Amino acid sequence: MCQFEPDPENSDKTTNIVATCGGNSVCFIDVTTGKVVSKYIPKDVKEMLYSLCWATWPVPGGCRKEVARVNVLATAGVRNTIHLILPHQSTCFLTHQLTAKRSLRPIQALIFLPHDPYTMMVGDNNGVIRVYKIAVTGSPPFEDSCSMEVLYELSTESEIFSFAFCTTTRILLAGCNDGLMGFEISDDNHNPKLLKFTMPIKADVETALVDSVEMIGDGWVASKCALHPAIYIWHLPTALGCNCTVAPSHLLHWSDTDNYFMYLGLQKHCGLLCCGDDMGALWLYNIKNLDTSHKALKPTAVEPSAIFPWPILSDSSTEKKRKLNLDVYDIVVDKVTINYDGTCIVAVTNNNLVCIWRRKR
């Protein structure tokens, strides 16, 4: 997984730092230099980290009573443990194991609520969503001043792969093995009804798996169903009014692949959506000017604005040691993230490469 760090002073922007996780570590990379500026390795040698997400916390600024803002990264994986990290201080100030070691369930999705960065949703491979409230009583580095409490639990009844939260409807969407699920999240109701969305079907595809979902703004959603050669753009409030039936307004043409789990990357500020494929290519879409003002009988087909093919790589150290080149086997792009002005795209692959793409001036 990978995600750009938000600018703590301007939520519409990002910094030059991108966080990546895979294996037993999280790397913080400066995309202007390509160098790893800090790295977190859990003490548990059996940990394998699958997911991460950022939050910006307002914290007291001291005697001047100013409110400072600090970025925190959450990451988790196979050991059913949440790690909260201060990247610029290279410290993990809290580790929290969700269940006893004898019943470990890998954590596969994390999200902080946009309107409440101290509330985090944690989804595991058994379909359980735990809603956590994080309490902070001190200032960074938060030593012994941070704790986590489970407010309540939900179940999608299906393995969870991704989360998105709609601020318009307060619906939490979860891409799952059995399709797209949702819950209306509120402070008053800790037992919301499970919403099961009816997604578009493809005649020759038996699975209903939704591996990636993103909110693109104003109730509009981008979602990707496994083995479908398209990314669906649709309106969540409209679907809620039609018994949770999804009717896409646009179909973004994408790879006709038989591989799963290539996650969408979205940057709302510049209106770009991107997804990699199993040939190492990036499919980029300009969604800022999509016409969503009228209802059409059929969804509008949209071609990618650009497709960036996998580059030809030259690795002198590999050649000297007579090892196989990195791209001998298929390069699957697992996840993509875009900086705020669309000048830099970062992709992570199935063979642990971090690829930085910069727009030419």
From TrEMBL:
Keyword line: Chromosome, Leucine-rich repeat
The Leucine-rich repeat and WD repeat-containing protein 1 WD domain, residue ranges: 2-358
Keyword hit for Transport: no
SUPFAM superfamilies, per database record: WD40 repeat-like
Native species: Laodelphax striatellus (Small brown planthopper)
Name of the protein: Leucine-rich repeat and WD repeat-containing protein 1 WD domain-containing protein
Pfam families linked: WD_LRWD1
Principal localisation: nucleus
Entry's Gene Ontology BP terms: chromatin organization; establishment of protein localization to chromatin
Transmembrane segments: none
GO MF annotation terms: chromatin binding
Cell compartment(s), UniProt: Chromosome
GO cellular component, one term: nuclear origin of replication recognition complex
Recorded superkingdom: Eukaryota
